[in-house]
Design goal:
This protein is of the alpha+beta class. The protein contains 13 helices and seven strands.
């Protein structure tokens, strides 16, 4: 096989694995552009390796992407200004549109906005162990080599991450189901601009408190009464499209996460099927301390 044929064969095999690699990287990094960078880096490393000696190319590439994502997560605070890649040969040429907001929004929604938000709260090692093992069935032996720990330690990382993702003993499923119904109705009314539908899920005397980071200039930081708040809330329909139910401190609340990046949290107090209190939280320091978890279907 000539050099050109070998290159074409290698490119074809890489393309067969691109979808999974992109999925792993996106769940690890929560960013479409960074995920593409990680996949590019995997191609670059493959093109420089002796591919003929790789027995399981898919597993090898997944391991490489895991390494790359782990390094990116650990160095986010001091990320290099230059791209991970310089000139990369085909087939992994960088797309002309580096960041497509609509495409990333669709991808985030397909993965689960709430899941991306909760994954962001894990340590890099926890996130990698959970994503690779629980979402892509990578054996703990392989996960261990990436994080530089024993298979048992990797198993513990995934277990700890799983507990944080799912939430610790969030209460009875029946109670959560009732809360979820109320929150679903609340979001549906916001998204469609249904004023009466929104009022219907609010306690008549609802209290809404908005922190300084969330309040618009001149906006009141406390509003009382369902109809009073609902009037202003009608303008939130666009933002409600990137809002999803999630467990907030063990109760059903709302995370607002455009393209999977946490922006606001609505902590809700629900009584007798009505929302009696809403705390709108946008302060980054406060957001970072909230106990968030994913709601089951």
């Amino acid at each position: 096989m000539g050099t050109r044929d070998e290159g074409r064969w290698l490119a074809e095999r890489f393309e067969q694995n691109r979808g999974q690699l992109r999925g792993v990287a996106y769940r690890m990094l929560g960013s479409l552009s960074e995920a593409e960078d990680a996949v590019q880096e995997a191609w670059l490393r493959l093109s420089r390796s002796d591919a003929a000696g790789i027995e399981n190319l898919g597993a090898w590439l997944t391991t490489v992407v895991g390494h790359v994502c782990l390094d990116m997560l650990r160095s986010r605070t001091s990320r290099r200004e230059e791209s991970l890649t310089e000139h990369v040969p085909e087939p992994a040429a960088r797309p002309e549109k580096r960041t497509d907001p609509e495409q990333e929004a669709l991808l985030a929604d397909s993965v689960g906005l709430a899941l991306l938000v909760v994954l962001e709260k894990l340590t890099p090692a926890e996130r990698l162990a959970f994503v690779l093992h629980d979402m892509f069935a990578v054996p703990f032996e392989e996960v261990a080599t990436i994080v530089g720990r024993s298979p048992e330690a990797a198993r513990q990382l995934a277990s700890r991450a799983r507990r944080r993702v799912q939430g610790a003993d969030p209460g009875s499923s029946a109670d959560l189901s009732r809360q979820r119904e109320t929150v679903d109705a609340f979001l549906a009314a916001l998204r469609t601009g249904d004023f009466e539908g929104l009022v219907a899920v609010l306690d008549p005397e609802v209290v809404v408190r908005i922190d300084a980071a969330s309040a618009a200039s001149g906006e009141a930081t406390e509003v009382r009464g369902a109809r009073n708040w609902a009037k202003g809330a009608m303008s939130y329909s666009q933002g409600a499209r990137s809002a999803r139910p999630a467990l907030v401190e063990g109760k059903v609340g709302v995370v607002v996460a455009p393209r999977g990046r946490l922006f606001r949290v609505l902590s809700l107090t629900i009584s007798d099927g009505k929302i009696a209190r809403i705390d709108v939280i946008g302060d980054p320091a406060r957001l970072s301390t909230l106990d968030l978890a994913v709601l089951g279907d």
